[in-house]
Sequence to fold (349 residues):
Amino acid sequence: MERAVVQRTFGERLSIWLRGNLAAVVIVGFSLLLAVLIGVESGASQLANVVVTGGMWALLAAGLALVFGVMNIPHFAHGESFMVGAYVGYFVFTPLSSYLQDNPNGLLQFFAPILGVLAAMLVGAVLGAFLERLIFAPLRKRTRAGWVMNTFLLTVGLSFVMTNGTTLLLGPNFRGIPRYYDLEPLEFLGMRVAFDRLFAFIIAIVVIAVLTWFMQRTRTGRAIRAVSQDETGAQLVGINLGSVHTLTFSLATAMAAMAGAALLFMFQAYPTVGLKPLYFAWYVVMLVGLGNVYGAIFGGFIVALLQTATQQFIGIAWEDVVPTVVMIVILILIPSGIFGSEVKGIQEQ
Fold:
């Protein structure tokens, strides 16, 4: 006897989805309300800043979520990848800028910041692959017991080593630039957006779009998703776990390094510059759910809205406090995050 297939209407499917994702719906609705209030209070330009900041938090958090989702590593040295990118961007862009002062070239002037970001991406990718092969791959071969705690302690130690090593090599001095592009702010639909902020936002959106396409459309991206869902099953179908882990860590490090270079005009390069971006990336990841890459992309804009709303309605001194409180409340009420965790086996660690 054949089983009857239940055909649900769009309204019924939507109702079921809303009931299953009530927390996400509430948070999204609250975020939209904040956006309206900010727009009314401060104008569209402030909303443009929210979008730019959110894009960069999304870029950082997506890499963090990728490492957690695929490798079960709580990566607390992710901020140092941001720091490396900031230094690379500075050391690439500054000589080019000095050269352009004596030899004006409009084309090179336009591409100089892009070259800095691309250099940061390459250095980050190589650094990520090197660290995974040197540190995490040997540890994975030796033991899987207590993996999450061991890698947590390992990444905290790695953070200290990279920070203090940078201090010894380059000193504690701040290295930054006033701006990438010496251009007037762009005006669009009543918004005034600094060209540097627009540049950073475009970098974030392009990288996120490429990452989404890569994960969804390519064979390698599907292999990464398979490993994040079931390592044993992925091995059975012939996926090389070592290669996937190396590529994943390399991608995440490259993304963080690109963010550091793209935001050099906001965050000067110095040994501990990655701490604040790391905190906000973790706010995003814990808000939306551990290992949820696509949720992290959306969550970056939610956290940026919280930051801006806090500055606007409470005070800039509370900018870091409110996102922390919201994160704690979410963890108490919804431990898996508003979009749900996608880390497999984490409860057993």
Notes: Residues 106-142 form the longest helix (37 residues).
